[in-house]
Design a protein that fits this description.
Length: about 500
Amino acid sequence: MVSLLISLGVLLIGFLVYGRVTEKIFAPDDRQTPAVAINDGVDCVPMKTWKAFLVQLLNIAGTGPIFGALMGAVFGPVVFLWIVFGSILGGAVHDYMSGMISSRHGGASIAELSGTYLGKAVKWIMRVFSVILLVLCGTVFVTSPAALLDKLTPDWMNGTFWAIIILAYYLLATLLPIDKLIGKLYPVFGVLLIVMAGAVIGGIIFSGGKYTIPELTLQNLHANGTPIWPFMFITVACGAVSGFHATQSPMIAKCIKSEKVGRKVFYGAMISEAVIALVWAAAGVSFYGTTQLLNEALANGASNVVYEISTGVLGFFGGILAIAGVVVCPITSGDTAFRSARLILAETFRLDQKSIKNRLLITVPLLIAGGLLTWFAIVNDNGFQIIWRYFSWSNQTLAMIALWVSTAYLLKKGKYRFGSLLTALPATFMTAVSSTYILTAKEGFCLDTTISYLIGASLAAVLFTVYLIVLIRRQNNHSRLRHPDPDKPVKDHTTSKS
């Protein structure tokens, strides 16, 4: 209990202190944002700050901070450390930089920003990679709420029925102007999500000793002995650092009315998501008592775990309300996943999105792909777990690339050259995480862990070394411009050629 309260306090301090450090390094100013400069009535639409914050929170807070946190809790209370410090030092910085850099480039996607700062080859890789990730995200955010709704409704309203309903909603949310559906519904859903998370943790805390939230330990308590590195850092996903957010922040970057609200909207939303992740991680280990029992419950599906915790802690009707919040969470990220994919493809093929015909031309094939993957997840016993694992790895890999893009931006245009360490350090860490995971995981190359650790660490070290070389060169060039060589003759520009 004490560890949870301290973790929540550290998150608040992180927002107030490290969030301001991040803001100072980026240095927001009074230039016009896309919402003001473009204001196309479809994607670039001005929103009030509180509404932009709630929409951003619902965009990014998908299944990850709930299912990912529950699966991460199988490692034990050590997951608290990753959620807290991963969010403050990595995830919130990642989200803020992705949104603010996009705002300064007319709301450009992470794929376009990658091309601007890392080269055309990276841009095309990111275009393909981002769209695949977003379709995987959309699929995850169809199957998980559909499974939950299946448990609450009559038999004829099964998972397939709800999947079709959710995909139909996604079609509308992807096509309509952002302020017509998303802008009106998300603030209400955002309040619901926050209230429900509070209700779950409140029910556990005030259970009269029925549930005990364990204190922090560095011990690996995973029932199957799965190593913390790198698996826990991949599993938690959206609850700490998420590349999916790099696809969502540019969408809200099109809606903020001033750069100076970026810390509240982008950094603040990620810290809020970390709070949600902490709540569900704590709920998982306290409700089942041991990580062994939690792991066994997860074998029957994460949706089933959410149902058991919600109804067990709050009773039937309270559980229904809690699950409603959990259902809203992934649905309101799935629709924006497909919307972001539409915007990336529109950028790629230069299709004007004011035209409903052009929006349909992109949206329909995306939803067909999502529907096929959803069908795969439903008809296969391990379909959801397979999709989740690939989503988790691609998610963290995208986060790694987005952090390196942010580092390149700060090196080229940042006010403080050494301020680029803000993103370079978490970029290096995520490089080691994602590369080590894909080398050692079953869905990857299945290499020996020692070899995988060595290669992953070496790759991260090489990229950080390249970064330091570029940083030193730019710092030296900057110093020469400010302090030219006194022995070098200076041209006299006051006289003209005769």
